[in-house]
Amino acid sequence: MPRTEGERSGLDRRAFARLAGGGVLAACAAELRAESTAATAPPAPPGPQRALMKVGTQHDSSDETLAVLAALGVTHICSRLPSTRLDEPWSVEGLTRLRDRVESFGIRLDMVPLPLSSLDTAHAEMPNIMLGQSPERDREIDDICRMIRNASRAGIPALKYNMSILGVVRTEPTAGRGGARYSTFRYEKARQEPPFTKAGPVPADAYWERITYFLDRVIPVAEESKVRLACHPHDPGMPHDRGYRGVHTVLGSVEGLKRFIDIHPSPYHGLNFCQGTVAEMLDDPGREIFEVIRYFGLRKKIFNVHFRNIQGRFLDFRETFIDDGDVDMLEAVRVYREVGYDGMLMPDHVPRIAGDAEGAQAFAYTFGYIKALIRAIDGQKGPPTRA
Questions:
Q1: What DSSP element (H or E) covers 197?
Q2: Structure confidence at residue 385 (pLDDT)
């Protein structure tokens, strides 16, 4: 008599049990239970995330200074300007000697500045690039391209520069913690005399033309040489409709910096990301700065960080000690870790303390603070807290 489907199944199970034996069947059942548990268990927590950034600085490169920096635990630097023109210090041999001497102190030479200082200074280098005057600017850009190639041959991976006409504009300093002098800017108190710089009126379109003209020439050379070019924002940003002394600071806003990095989508074109200057562009730096870091950091456009703090907001701020400003610097370091930033965090400007005219004590304090911040988040488990 034919068996039903249920009977056949029952027979098959009994036959399997007899043939396999109880021990084998139990092992199979245990394996199935383990697979089921693994499928429903929550994922293992992420392992520790290393902090890849390093404490750095942009001090002079004398042997005396390098010895002090090494003693303070500074491991990476941007040197001072080798020379204001294309001469022996900018040769491959001159740059190689500089790198070798820095590295003899156990410090890595990560970056060197190009001779592109602010135009509105007594001794502006290569002024025609920012004046937009050809053919003079073409000769100056040719020299910059040669410097890029020489840096590459000397084993220097990055160069920093600025495209500023105004320079760093400030009003009278104010008293900060312990009577220290805090560099301060209040737009309404800033004297706009004479009404124009030597560049005359520079509307936004003219400024962008000069910047783009420069980048069109130098970024292909940087790509060929594999040297990263890091541009500093305009410090401080000025009102978009009024500017300052006839100049519209197009790199003085987050939107301007976004436009800047999009001019050439190259991994060798990015920012000397001055966190203090970017904070000065914001209405609420303590809340807004973290998303700005994420924007540029996730796009790998942060090549160096000037790691300083401020009190205040756009057009009304002062530069403070690293732990006395509106930005949570520990949270900032967490965000740099989150985006995988692996370059230098350097003090940049520091307040002036009585009896410390050169800022040595303030710099030493800031180096230690940065090292402690990096150590505090190094190896923390899980993703950093989002702002």
A1: none
A2: 44
Which residues have a Cβ under 8 Å from the Cβ of 153 and sit 6 or more positions away?
92, 95
Number of C-beta neighbours around residue 249 at 10 A? 25
Cα 332 to Cα 273, 292, 294, 341, 349: the distances in Å are 13, 11, 10, 11, 18
DSSP tag of 193: -
Sign of CA dihedral 144, 79, 349, 375: positive
Predicted model pTM:
0.85
Secondary structure (3-state) at 356: strand
Per-residue buried b or exposed e for 219-228, using 16+ beta carbons within 10 Å of the residue's own CB: bebbbebebb
Beta bridge mates, 273: 305
Are the C-beta atoms of 334 and 317 separated by less than 8 Å? no
In percent, how much of the chain has pLDDT > 90? 80
Which CATH architecture does the domain made up of 54-377 adopt?
A: Alpha-Beta Barrel (3.20)
d(CA 125, CA 87): 14
* C-beta neighbour count of 195 within 10 angstroms: 9
Q: How far, in Å, CA of 225 to CA of 268, rounded?
A: 9
Distance CA 160, CA 301 (A): 13
Task: Give the domain ranges of the chain.
Answer: 5-40, 54-377
Tokens of 18: 């007899």
Specify the pLDDT at position 37: 44
List, for residues 112-167, the tens digit of each pLDDT value. Answer: 999 997 776 555 789 999 999 999 999 999 999 999 999 999 999 999 999 999 99
How far from the centroid of its chain's Cα atoms is residue 331's Cα?
15
List Cα–Cα distances, 99 to 155, 249, 270, in angstroms. Answer: 8, 34, 23
Q: The tokens 């268990």 sit on which residue?
A: 41
H-state helical runs in the chain: 5-20, 22-40, 63-71, 92-103, 128-131, 136-153, 204-225, 254-262, 275-280, 285-298, 329-338, 360-377
The answer to whether 347 and 76 have CB atoms below 8 angstroms apart is no
